[in-house]
Write a structure and sequence with these properties.
8-stranded antiparallel β-sheet, elongated, alpha+beta, 8 strands
Length: 136
């Protein structure tokens, strides 16, 4: 009986001790610098060979969106488009675009310009991609 009382007391102490701790972390997407970007392209599929190369003003808008410090959400979404950014140090980042979400891995931020990326892809001429996403 004393053991049961002791165990119950330990459980209650643990419950009250952990009550004020918050486990949720607020996360944002990593910042990128416009001056470090060499080229940016949008593709419809991950391994498509045709893509739309973004102009400088479009790249600036994307950098503003990514650096907006919006809190990201953890989501599992099938991307409709892919955004590839190649930096001057030859590193490549890929972002997923789905409806009004833009994300890297499974962290997404909500964007207001819902159809902006769709319009950029659909209304511009497609060329052979300059950013290699796999060994060809």
């Amino acid at each position: 009986m004393k053991i049961m009382t002791f165990i119950a007391l330990l459980i209650l102490l643990n419950i009250f001790a952990c009550q004020n701790q918050k486990i949720v972390q607020k996360k944002t997407l990593n910042e990128i610098k416009y001056s470090e970007i060499e080229i940016a392209e949008i593709k419809k599929g991950l391994y498509d060979t045709l893509c739309v190369e973004l102009k400088k003003n479009q790249i600036k808008k994307i950098v503003e969106i990514l650096n907006s410090k919006k809190e990201s959400e953890l989501l599992k979404i099938m991307p409709k488009y892919w955004l590839f950014i190649k930096f001057k140090n030859d590193s490549i980042k890929k972002y997923k675009i789905a409806d009004n979400y833009l994300g890297e891995f499974d962290d997404y931020i909500k964007i207001e310009t819902k159809n902006n990326f769709i319009n950029v892809y659909e209304n511009n001429s497609k060329t052979k991609c300059k950013i290699k996403t796999r060994i060809e």
